[in-house]
Amino acid sequence: MRVELRQIHKSFGPVHANDGISLTIPAGMIQGILGENGAGKTTLMKILSGFQRADRGEIWLDGRQAHIQSPQDTGGLGIGMLHQDPLDVPAMRVVDNFLLGRQGGVRPRRGQAREALQELAERFGFALDPEAYVDGLTVGERQQLELLRLLWLGARVLILDEPTTGISALQKDALFASLRKLSEEGRTIIFVSHKLEEVENLCHRVAVLRRGQLVGEVAPPYDTDRLVQMMFGRVIGLGSRLEGQAGRRVIELEEIVIEDRRMTIGPVSLHAAQHEVIGLAGMEGSGQQVLLRACAGLIRPVHGKMRIAGGDVLGRSYHDFLRLGVAFMPASRLEEGLIGGLDLAEHFSLTDPQAGILIQRQAAQARTMAQIEAFKIKGTPDSLVESLSGGNQQRTLLSLVGEDLSLLLLEHPTRGLDIESVVWIWEKLKERCRHGTAILFVSSDLDEILHYSDRIHVFFGGRVSPSLPAGTTTVEQLGQLIGGKGWPEVSL
Amino acid sequence: MRLPAGSSGAALRLVAVFLALLFTTGVLLLAGAPPLEAYRQIVTGSLGSVKKITDVLVTWVPLVLATSGLLVTFAAGLWNIGIEGQITLGAIFATGTLRLTLDSSLPPVVAIGAAILAGIAGGAVWALLAGLLKVYGGVNEIFGGLGLNFVAVALNVWLIFGPWGRPGVASMSGTEPLPDFLSLPSLAGLRLSPWAVLLAVGGFALVFLLLQGTYFGLRLRAVGKNARAAFLLGVPTVRYMLLAFVLCGALGGAAGAVQVTAVYHRLIPSISSGYGYLGLMVAMLVNYQPLWMPAVAFFFAALNIGSIQLPIVLKLDSSLAGVLQGALVLFVLAVEGVRQRLRRSPVKTAE
Q1: What is the CATH T-level fold of the domain A249-490, as seen in this structure?
Q2: Quick one: B104 exposed, middle or buried, by C-beta within 10 A (0-12, 13-18, 19+)?
Q3: Is residue A241 within 8 Å of residue A229, measured between CB atoms?
Q4: From start to end of A296-363, where are the E strands?
Q5: Which member of B214, B222, B228 has the closest CB to residue A359?
Q6: I need a surface site. Which of A103, A317, B174, B265 has the fewest CB within 10 A?
Q7: Which of B233, B236, B351 has its CB closest to that of A350?
């Protein structure tokens, strides 16, 4: 289907998120949409998919003007969007979520849906159990489910908003292969990303957005430097690892075993010392997130020993861990990290040490302004957190974490962020390391793991590798371990 | 047409009130009653004299206390349907305490004070039960509260007909009236007790302050909006949910104690008078924000009192007040829903 956007305008208060964007995408094309956080990519896609309405502008599909009022309309028109944050019903089973949005019939045909789901999942190499409950899945697996559902509903235009952030390298390859196949079938793919390599690899053409405007369109062969320049107006590079001396041990795990609904994780022994960054790598759902949450006191291991700052902490509550200087930053920003409906100032009042019974409004305001400044959050003290862009939400989350921490646990700290933000956030994290904090982080971005970790633990189906020095580990080696190869060599 | 962000709120509320009146008028016409006369009766019946206005305030006091409590639980994202039972338990505890002091030589001031405190404690305990059921038993507070309401009513009726029954003639009219010196002093010749009004104003002021400017209120709201995130940010969510229940129950219990010490001077089967459910409606009508609550509660109380003489004058049932109150809440909610729809999707302007 040929998609034409004509002079799309959309404002949120004073912010002009889309400022007269016109774009034509022929049928069968994989169109890349590139831009940094807050450039207007997601807004434009939400307008096309009916989740938001443009203030002005027209949408034409196959030469006919479309009047899109809601996501239901776009479903009928064959437009499907895969969102950055999964839009599923967590308390339901995978197969029932799969059935949602299907038109017609009173009684859902679960058997038929299950078959279709399994067939599609196989085609993409996704391992989804139709009878599992969605709240037991990782964000990455939930994205996979949503993608399969859209395909099953017969989407002819597929919008993918940062689709690769939650899935492994292998799954990404399978996804890209399928997207190419789908485009050959004549489906239009709109691929929103800030990952240059992916866009260059996959897309037939790339449109670059900056500050709500279309900067330009580029066709292959791509010149990376030029794309970066279009996105940011200048060239930037990744920061470097902090090479420092490890201090005393902050956390020690001895033969820890965790029982999850789907697998047993461990036994794992690991430790992290002051100034150290430990990366936990693995395919989504290999147990690394479970272990991270166990280190935060959110999940109780069934066996083993855990010491923080020398004291035994196994069985203590999450809030006890907090008091010991452990902080945890969850991946799903609006579900677990921030409180929708509260503004920035209220978030800081909530997390700052309480001074008296009454909230001192002026002090809270001043403190919020200082944090906004220090963390470069694009917002005001009375901005509701849900009105911020993904990157700014992440900055807010980071700014809410206390100053003098002994251990910082991060779940996908830079998921969905552009390079500039990634570099910036890691600068902030490294600053904390310099002051003595140890960092444990989960990421599916291998470059990020190799780049910022001192040591790495790889997870595969609940199995955990001994620590590998990041300096001498290669991407290929890491990729193999994540895929379940080469384990005898690393196991002692 | 594109609606401006906030200015149209008040105007649309007026539209909702108008629609509710229209609906009620329709009901009156169907019932074959003269609508204007009915409305006139309600106005004169509630505001026609100082005596009537003080009668409205007698109703206003427990309604404000119960609604204040509900604002706390709503802030924490909880639907405390159990408020009715909490009012009833407050009344039972207050009555029990007064009965205990009957044979003692305690000064009446101490006895009444103790009764009100006991009522507060009774409501709080009953609410805590609903809270514990929710937090540790996984029972949704709506179902738990509803169940506890039935238990409270049963307990109340059992006391009235059993242990606390009038000697020989236990009946629906309630327990033996308490002696006058065990009542909250009222204004000369009127049913209204200034002390009760003071209690209501105090309860409201407490909740208003709590929700508007304290860390406690902020944490409650955080729990209400996203309990999971609040927990991860360090808020002890279980404690705050239970505290919200206890606070609401305490204010409900105070309402029950006032019903005994200032209004009925005994325990009657329907001692809660439905103020809990009415309070839920008031809270919804003010969009769970404290500022306008006392005014709306006064309006609802006036409707209740004003409709009392409808059966006498117009042979209409006094439940007309309920029809108007219910219609008002429904129309305000509906109009608010329409308003949000219009704001979300402004229709394209001609260009």
Answers
A1: Rossmann fold (3.40.50)
A2: exposed
A3: no
A4: 303-308, 311-312, 326-329
A5: B214
A6: A103
A7: B233
Euclidean distance between CA atoms A314 and A318, whole angstroms: 11
For A460, the enclosing helix (H) or strand (E) is strand A455-460
Yes or no, beta carbons of A358 and B222 under 8 Å apart: no
Burial class (CB in 10 A: 0-12, 13-18, 19+), A378: middle
What's the rounded Cα separation, in Å, for the pair B149 and B147? 5
> Strands, DSSP E only, in B128-256?
none
Chain B residue whose CA is closest to A355: B215
Measured CA to CA, the distance from residue B148 to residue B138 in angstroms comes to 15
User: What's the CATH fold of domain A3-232?
Assistant: Rossmann fold (3.40.50)
> How many A×B Cβ pairs under 8 Å?
66
Cα→Cα distances B95→B66, B82, B106, B116, B257, Å: 19, 20, 15, 9, 8
User: Alpha carbon A379 to chain centroid distance?
Assistant: 21
List the beta strands (DSSP E) in B73-206.
none
Q: What is the DSSP letter of A386?
A: G
DSSP, collapsed to helix, strand or coil, labels residue B278 as helix
- Note the pTM of the prediction, 2 decimals: 0.75
Collect all residues of chain A within an 8 Å Cβ-Cβ radius of residue B213: 358-359, 361
The answer to ipTM > 0.95 is no
The Cα of B307 is separated from the nearest Cα of chain A by a number of Å equal to: 40
Amino acid at A21: I
Is residue B351 within 8 angstroms of chain A, CB to CB? yes
How many CB atoms are located within 10 Å of the residue B51 CB?
Answer: 11
Pairing of strands A188-193, A30-34: parallel
How close B78 comes to chain A (CA, Å)? 16
Query: Are A361 and B213 a contacting pair at CB < 8 A?
Result: yes
H helices of B259-319, where?
275-285, 293-306, 310-314
The structure tokens listed for A362 are 């002026």
Which residues of B are less than 8 Å from A345 in CB distance?
none
Inter-chain residue contact B344 with A53, CB threshold 8 Å: yes
Distant-in-sequence, close-in-space partners of A313: CB < 8 Å, separation ≥ 6: A297, A306, A307, A320, A321, A324
Residues of chain A with CATH 3.40.50.300: 3-232, 249-490
Chain length of chain A? 492
- Distance from B113 to chain A by nearest Cα, in Å? 27
Structure tokens at B253: 């219990």
Residues 129-188 of B with CB under 8 A from A: none
Tens of pLDDT, residues A166-186:
566 777 787 888 888 888 888
Residue numbers in B near A55 (CB within 8 A): 346
Cα–Cα distance, B332 to A4 (Å, whole number) = 41
pLDDT digits 0-9 by tens, B188-222: 888 899 999 999 999 999 999 999 889 999 999 99
Angle at CA A353, nearest 5°, toward A351 and A358?
A: 95
Q: Which residues of chain A does B230 touch, with a Cβ-Cβ cutoff of 8 Å?
A: 339, 350
The predicted structure's pLDDT at residue B8: 57
Q: Which residue has the tokens 């022929």?
A: A26
Single-letter code of the amino acid located at B104? S
Q: Find the CB nearest B234 among A53, A338, A351.
A: A351
Q: Which residues of A touch B222 (CB under 8 A)?
A: 339, 342, 346, 350
Cβ proximity of B307 and B321 under 8 Å: yes
Residues in B closer than 8 angstroms to A56, CB to CB, are 348, 351
Tokens of A138: 């990782």
Nearest residue in B to A330, CA atom: B232
* CB-CB neighbors (< 8 A) of B229 in chain A: 335-339
**Ranges under pLDDT 70 in chain A:** 13-15, 37-38, 84-90, 101-108, 139-140, 165-168, 232-246, 491-492
